[in-house]
Amino acid sequence: MKEEKFKSGFVSIIGRTNVGKSTLVNALVGEKVAAVANKTQTTRTAIKGIVNRPNAQIIFIDTPGIHKPKTKLNETMIETAFNFAKDVDIILFVIDARSEEIGRGDSKILEKIKETKAKTILLLNKIDMVQNKEKLLHLIDLYRKEYNFTAIIPISASKKENLEEILKEIEKNLKEGPAYYNIEEYTDQTVRQLVEEIIREKALKFLQDEVPHGLYVEVENMKYRKTKDKEEIYDIEAVIYCLRESHKGIIIGKGGSMLKKIGTYARKELENMLETKINLKLWVKVKEDWQNKENVVNKFKA
Question: From CA 25, how far away is CA 37, in angstroms rounded?
Answer without folding.
Answer: 14
